[in-house]
Amino acid sequence: MAAYIIAEISITDPVEYEEYKKLTPATVAAYDGAFKVRGAKAESLEGNWEPGRVVILQFPSIERAKEWWSSEAYSEAKGIRQRAALSKMIVVEGV
């Protein structure tokens, strides 16, 4: 069953975050993942959620998504993201 990683990102260091954006796509692809949304404009329809940057990744399973997130391949990019942005991230099963 497909799984999605959904992230809300608030960039604090745009210059360093550009390096993250360069490194991440190859790591996602290596774990059979794909970007579905990558920083597109978001508009709140209900409640007070006003996300700045939203990213949605699709993987073939939750297990594969978690393998990517905890992988050595992604570790350098993850460290850059954690320094250059404030992130909220979940993984959820698709239908």
List the helices and strands and how they pair.
Elements: E1 3-11, H1 14-30, E2 34-40, E3 53-59, H2 62-69, H3 72-84, E4 85-93
What does this structure look like?
The chain has 95 residues and is an alpha+beta fold. The protein has a single domain (3-93), classed as Alpha-Beta Plaits, CATH 3.30.70.100. Helix content is 40%, strand content 34%. It has helices spanning 14-30, 62-69, 72-84, and strands at residues 3-11, 34-40, 53-59, 85-93. It has a 4-stranded antiparallel sheet with strand order 2-3-1-4. Helix 1 (14-30) packs antiparallel against helix 3 (72-84). The longest helix has 17 residues, at 14-30. The radius of gyration is 13 Å and the shape is globular.
Instruction: Give me the count of strands.
Output: 4
What's the order of the H and E elements?
EHEEHHE
According to CATH, what is the topology?
Alpha-Beta Plaits
Beta content comes to 25-35%
Q: Provide the number of structural domains.
A: 1
Name the strands of the widest sheet in spatial order.
Answer: 2-3-1-4
Features:
single chain; 95 residues; alpha+beta; Alpha-Beta Plaits; 40% helix; globular
Give a short synopsis of this structure.
Helix content is 40%, strand content 34%.
